[in-house]
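Ticket #4471: structure export looks truncated?
Reporter: QA, pipeline team
Priority: medium

Steps to reproduce: submit the single chain below to the structure queue and open the exported record.
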Amino acid sequence: MKGRIPDSFIKDLLDRTDIVELIGARVELKRAGKEYRGLSPFTNEKTPSFFVSPAKQMFFDFSSGKNGSAITFLMEYDRLPFVEAVEELAKRAGLEVPREGGGFERLVLDGPLDALAAAERFYRGELRRHQPAIDYLKSRGLSGETAKRFGIGYAPAGWDSLARQFQEPAHAVTAGLLVQKDNGGVYDFFRNRIMFPVRDIRGRIITFGGRVLPGDDDPRKYLNGRETPLFDKSRNLYGLYEARQSSKSALPYLIVVEGYMDAVMLAQHGIPEAVATLGTATSREHLNLLFKSTGKVVFCFDGDRAGRSAAWRALEQALPEAQDGREFRFMFLPEGHDPDTLVQEIGADEFRRRADRAPTLSAFLLNELSRQVNLSTVDGRARLSALARPHLARMRQGALRSLILDELVKLTRLSRADLEAAVADKKTASAETAAAPAATPEAGAARPVKRALQLLLERPDLAGAVESPDMLAQSDAPGVSLLIEVLDRFREHPEATAAQLLERWRDTPRGAALQRLLAAPIDLDEAAIAREFQEAVAHLTNKALRARAQALVTAARDRDLSAGELRELDSISRQLADRPPPAA
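Actual output as written to the record:
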């Protein structure tokens, strides 16, 4: 039985496919500005309304209403099932299609796996010979036993130190260890870094992460492995294999931290149940992976604004996955501490007690929402009900959702029936929004989130210019969570296209929403697209800053703000001083 085709392979396959060449072999196309135009191959139209976008790597057929990537085109034009369409494109690109699970992967992937295992041996040997790397790890308190357990090593500073170890570099290139140059040569992807091997749940090394040594001028403190047929950031977690190996029975919980060293040092100090995300926010795929090993997940974040924003985004991913038998907790670190320093100061037992006492999903959700309103007023209680509705609408029916509703009844003084009816209305409104036709560009311009998404899908490179995407999460603008998710994806994968994102989210509400946005033409030059995108993001950031400031001011009426909250309010006030108020 063949397994699922990895998303990372689909991404690589679309990277290698020229959609203009593919469709041009079947449909007569003529250049029309930045796009190519032709007659619809799906209808009998007389006037061309079929377009192919090289930038988006997508086709749009306004005659039949069909649009999508190269895979979608083959499915529609050649009437192929999804898997056969992928196999046809792979054959054109000279690739074999790997599958997750089953025995097929051994035939295809042993070469890259062997290259990764060889790299780990090389990096561990180099660590023993490089004193500055040893000194750095000792300064962090890492023991030799822990370094051996996690297979930690060192990648030399040379451009071809690892490359020289391979007589034939092809498997190492496929594994993401080496980078292919235009002239056919290769060079090392990781250089002058402490190396952390990342294992899948079977213990096989599938990639590495590298931490730059102090004094190196590389601005990237951590460098995560490139996505390959073996490795997908959103589907793997650092330290999960080691955590599972630490116990012969089911793990009582898993603690999700932000960095490799956090997970390693917690394990060294007696808390082996720690895992780290790999340069990306926690995804629903991560959560499903975690709950295969435990019934309880504890998110561990800094207690500052950035940490709370990251925790809120984790909560948004957790809401649809929350169900009976699954427990989420949100642990915040004291100011000035990371997991490593805190566990050294208070000990493993107290660290575990704090994890056990950390706020639950329901407590964190209701506390964060309550901080934004004044519950002593009728308007404040009504506002709390409105803020809670979209989050409850995303939850499954069950005991947890029912208990949260009970708490809301106490806080808002509304009846259970009124709250249930309000949530039902929110679900209906969301469904109607999802089914609505694509907005025109003019209408989109009046909706900054939708317009920012349209422009970002046209120019994914603009994601890198957004300085504080987490701040946007403070905004209550509809759709802002989708905008942040798209921003994150394009920031992590600067070379990605809209078509790749669409394939990744095929047959999901997110994919359907993006498909409608992509169908709307954007008749702007490159400079105008960048300018309008920056204006839309600035508008949303402005509103988010004002919303957060108002929430803090409202909270100050009922209690004394913490020192951190006062500093945050002062910072926001200074940022807003030179900004005009947002348009209505």
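Status: closed, not a bug. The export was complete when the record was re-opened. Leaving a note from the reviewer for reference: The longest strand covers residues 205-212.
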